[in-house]
Amino acid sequence: MPIVVAPENTVLKIIKILVDEKTKRHLENLGILVNASITVLARNDGNVIVKIKDGRLALNKDTALKIFVA
After folding, report:
1. How many domains does the structure of the chain reveal?
2. Alpha carbon of residue 57 to chain centroid
3. Could you give the C-alpha distances from 43 to 22, 28, 29, 32, 50, in angstroms and in order?
4. Structure confidence by residue, pLDDT tens digits, 42-62
5. How many helices (H) and strands (E) does the chain have?
6. Residue 38: which of 21, 54, 60 has the closest Cα?
7. Residues 6+ apart with CB under 8 A from 37
């Protein structure tokens, strides 16, 4: 399921990231990579705030729709 519809405050595993290579490298530098654990903290109009490792990160709707979790 895309991260925009994932339940809040639940630890999830990233299973797929469907973005171009430049964006993928940028997300990897931020800690968002396949098999990483991620938690949705809040969402607003499709934009998502997530906890990855020890930090928080805001993802816009377009990017969040391309990150799939299980």
Report:
1. 1
2. 9
3. 25, 21, 22, 17, 9
4. 999 989 999 999 999 999 999
5. 2, 5
6. 54
7. 11, 12, 13, 14, 52
Q: Model pTM? A: 0.92
Distance CA 28, CA 47 (A): 19
pLDDT at residue number 27: 96
Structure-token match 């020890």, residue found:
54
Low-confidence ranges of the chain (pLDDT < 50): none
For position 59, which CATH number holds? Answer: 2.30.30.90
Residue 5 has a pLDDT of: 95
Q: What angle do CA 55, 58, 64 make, to 5 degrees?
A: 120
Range of the domain at 26: 3-69
